[in-house]
Amino acid sequence: MRPPDRSIRLAVTGLGVVCAIGRNQHEVWSSILASRDGISSLSHFPGESFPTTLAAEVAGDPYEQAGVTRSAAKRMSRTDLLAIAAAREALAQAGGAESLPLDGMIVSSGTSTGGLLEGEGYFFTHRRSGVLRSPASAVLQQPTSGPSDAVASALGIGGGVVSNATACASAGAAIGVAADLIRSGQAVAALAGGSDALCRLTYSGFNVLQAVDPERCTPFGASRQGITLGEGAGYLVIERLDDALARGATILAEISGYGASCDAHHPTAPAEDGRGAAAAMRAALEDGRLTISEVDYINAHGTGTLLNDSAETRAIESISGGSIPVSSSKSFFGHTLGAAGGIEAVVTVLALMNGIAPPTLRLDQAADDCTLDYVPNTPRALAMSGALSNTFGFGGSNVSLLFRRYGGTIGD
Amino acid sequence: MSRFSSGATEGRLEIERVAITGVGVISPGAIGAEAFGQLLRSGEPAVKAIERFDTGGLKAATAGLLTEFKPREFIAVAKMRRMNMLSRIAMGAARLALDDSRFAERGYGRSDVGVAVGTMFGPVQTSLDYMKEYVERGAALAPPQLFAESVANAPGSHLAIEHGFEGFNITFTQRESSFLAALMYAASQIVKGTLPAALAVGVDELSEMTYGVLDRIGALAHPSSSGPEEMRPFDRSRNGMTVGEGGVCLTLEKPGAAAAWCRISGFGMSRDTTASLSDWGSGSAAVRRAMETAIDDAGLTAADIDAVFASANGSVKADRLEGRALVELFGERLPPVVAAKAYFGEYAGASGLHVAAAALALKEQLLPVTPGFSQMDEAIAFQPNLELRQLPLRHLLVNSVSAGGGVVVAVLSRSAE
Asked: How far apart are CA A392 and CA B374, in angstroms?
């Protein structure tokens, strides 16, 4: 079998994103520049009673943006539709079906819950009315392969589909998996990212774990009490740099490498010393053949939980000494779980392209155990050549993606 | 079309192999690789009537069930309490594989070993259990332990914690291709040089809800005028799949690290664009392309393939699709085809048990029969292997053709060790 060839340079040629602060990359970047978050009262589950009341929801019905028919949408979950909307934007920016080899292109998606929202609907109907009156279609929408299958189906992609459900590291893993499939010749190009819709199980579950902040989350802050849950999708178009240049595509950035690791510590809590997170970042640097001195910004996992933010701070300190600006985009659009790695990869590429580090909102006072430069409250102009984007998940799974600003020549 | 269109890869990189050094099987009718071999040699499916939930009102009533699996033989009781059944099955399969390969003797460091898990339905039953508590006790009082186990990667997490594996830990969920997708990733990381060893794990459990839904959409084999309820891969009278539960674990290492069952030589993937979101399509060219890519990735030609372990599961469309692709690829030189899922059901080991069956065939140079076949389907135009036979097996093709269109194919080769 042919190994993934680290010497092959990979270009990002398309970005697509849907989340609480925007329904495309331009809206999202405008919200970031304006330091405007998308967190408000939870409206998805009327009549349910949760200890907390905030969420970062995507406004409206995503089916319209997904560009599929009503009848097709009925066979898809909200997570699937969010994925299609983001993937369609990314594909269009990359040149669309006319200029990309869809037969050799793959879809690699990560999701944590897939169509669990629709599965919950089936559960309630089944409980109330019995099996014969419960629509089987609701459960057919549930598999976590849904986003990849739906995106590939909607966009006519024939190179393959691969899905992972690695909790909150899912979309980051999906991007890394796609990069290696291209570098080993299994795929010519990829739509890679992730999607997750809010659902009752996760909203309840993080509450029972006492991991949700009753106020809008304040990652790395002295008053932080946990996450704010969000939803959305983010996808990248990735292809070989030489292929992209040959077809005249605009290169948005390079994805230089990724690293994956596991804490092997606890089912839900990170290792306090951040060793797993640090290992993932080191592996990304090694994969991309860069040194930490070439990284100018880190888009942190930065959930707002006491344990994560402290452990991630330790991890970043251990690899960098603590001088690199770090921020948490979750302060804008909440923790989008399995989609986080995709949405935050889009934000990281936008940051590289624009030379602006997104801020961490509501960070009036950093916690004593959070000792880095977190770019508080307002965006900062920053000359960047390299950036890391971190996502960590339940089970101690860690993924770090390494992006590089594109210099314009193949020999750069 | 060559997948290596840019040219830089072609002919430059050495084609490498990955050794399968240990096999752990938690199968319907067989715990452990030795018992699994006996099951396959018996020619009789390990499918039973379902007793754990009521199948009244359903057309189907059988499945490949784990009735002999005792988690306490593999997991300390105190730890077991924190695991759902999915995690327990994965832990059992991994324990067996690690013992089989004498993995501990290599002295790998904590960061030297990664884990890739494949699962189809994942923690559906745990999610249902959680929602039941959610309704009965309230959204704020459901058990946190159930929530922690409701993520699909909980089995991989438990494996990492138990054995101290700090390499990658990713859970793949690509329907019937879940295990092969996990295997492809794990093997790729070894040939890439990310780490020297990995576990590829496949796991699934039967849940009442998914069984009922599959029955209602007509996906399951059921009694008919052609005969009793039975999974009949490639047979003219087939009318659906039988589902199964179970786990499989393969320990993967660099060739030469230990005695090997066989080697992984190549992979291919594609997608049938004629498939709907939850069914198989008719695009045999896509299935053929994945097989060709895998053979090419292995540095072989179709003439080098001595047998095929098919994805066939008794579904009318799926078997026709794969059958046509096999005929298109091999023509009159079609090697023996085994549809091993008939022994334990679709999704057992997240459709990875037939990969273990292929590894066993290479090790023992013995090809099992395909149960359930009696009449050739003219639309497929071949009959699967119907005779237990010893024959020289050098390279096997192992297919997974998924509802929704995804295809992943592997080439396994006889070990040189």
From this structure: 51
3-state helix, strand, coil in chain B (%, to 5): 35, 20, 45
Nearest residue to B96 via CA among B29, B28, B32:
B32
- H helices of B268-352, in order, are 284-297, 316-330, 341-344
Query: Rounded to whole angstroms, how far apart are CA atoms B90 and B99?
Result: 14
Q: Is the pTM higher than 0.80? A: yes
Q: Quote the minimal CA–CA distance from B94 to chain A in Å.
A: 15
Q: How large a percentage of chain B has pLDDT more than 70?
A: 96
Please answer whether residues B406 and B175 qualify as being in contact, where contact means their C-beta atoms are separated by less than 8 angstroms. Answer: yes
Indicate yes or no: CB of A145 within 8 angstroms of CB of B174.
yes
Give bridge partners of residue B24 from the DSSP assignment.
B249
Q: What's the pLDDT score for residue A46?
A: 84
**Angle, vertex CA A51, rays to CA A45 and CA A52, nearest 5:** 70
More confident site: A311 or A408: A311
CA distance to partner chain A, nearest, from residue B319 (Å):
19
Nearest to B94 by CA among B39, B19, B22: B22
For A223-243, what is the mean pLDDT? 98
Q: What letter does residue B150 receive in the DSSP assignment?
A: T
ipTM above 0.90, yes or no: yes
What lies within 8 Å, CB to CB, of B200 at 6+ separation is B116, B118, B179, B182, B183, B186, B187, B249, B250, B252, B352
Contact (Cβ atoms closer than 8 angstroms) between residue B315 and residue B238: yes
Cβ-based neighbours of A61, under 8 Å, separated by 6 or more: none
Task: Give pLDDT, residue A138.
Answer: 73
Instruction: Look up residue B389 and give its two tokens.
Output: 């036979």
Q: Among all residues of chain A, which has the CA nearest to that of B136? A: A127
B273:A142 CB<8 A: no
B385/B393 Cα distance (integer angstroms): 14
B41, B186, B215: which is closest to B114 by C-alpha? B186
Does the annotation mark A265 as catalytic?
no
Tell me which H or E stretch contains A391: strand A386-392
Pairing of strands A326-327, A297-299: parallel
Confidence (pLDDT) at B15: 61
Q: Check if B187 contacts A (Cβ < 8 Å).
A: yes
Q: Give the mean pLDDT of B109-113.
A: 97
Contact A66, A105 (CB under 8 A): no
A19, A217, A301, A370: which is the annotated catalytic residue?
A301
* Catalytic status, residue A126: no
> A232-240 and B246-253: which strand pairing?
unpaired
> Which residue has tokens 């023509």?
B331
**Could you tell me if A233 and A385 are in contact, meaning their C-beta atoms sit under 8 angstroms apart?**
no
Shortest CA distance from A287: residue in chain B: B194
CB proximity B113 to A under 8 Å: no
- Asked if A26 is an active-site residue, the reply is no
